[in-house]
């Protein structure tokens, strides 16, 4: 004989463990995505240092080059979000079919994750770009 609350706890134990595991894996996936976006955007900007040097040598202002790089980063994040959101909705439906009683659409999550990745991409673009702006145009061109 067990108390009703113990029986209910034991009946939902598997679902609770699976939900907690999914939360932990989701946070880990977000952390890996942020690290990956930062690394990819930082590398993309570093690859463009000779181009930045040429633009600066030809008279481009730092603001214009920063806008160009930010636009490029925004395009990549926008395309990634357009491709990723349908996949996220599909996975949410799959999780909803496995875990009864779980809401498959949470607007806060579906808006905050792309926003976090967009902010990360912006920071990952602008930090190396500002560093590249400090490099003398002749040095950037000479290293090519």
Give your account of this protein's structure.
With 144 residues, the protein is mainly α. It has one domain (34-142). 85% of the residues lie in helices and 0% in strands. α4 (62-98) runs antiparallel to α5 (107-134). It is elongated, with a radius of gyration of 23 Å.
Element layout with pairings:
Elements: H1 4-11, H2 13-47, H3 49-57, H4 62-98, H5 107-134, H6 137-142
Gross morphology is: elongated
Query: Uncertain regions: pLDDT < 50 for 5+ in a row?
Result: none
The largest pleated sheet is described as: none
**Beta-strand content estimate:** under 5%
Radius of gyration: 23 Å
**DSSP summary: helix tally:** 6
Could you state the order of secondary-structure elements as H and E? HHHHHH
Q: What is the chains' assembly state? A: single chain
Q: How many separate domains make up the residues?
A: 1
Tags for this model:
mainly alpha, 6 helices
Quick summary of this structure?
This protein has 144 residues and is an all-alpha fold. The chain is built from 6 helices and no strands. The chain has one domain.
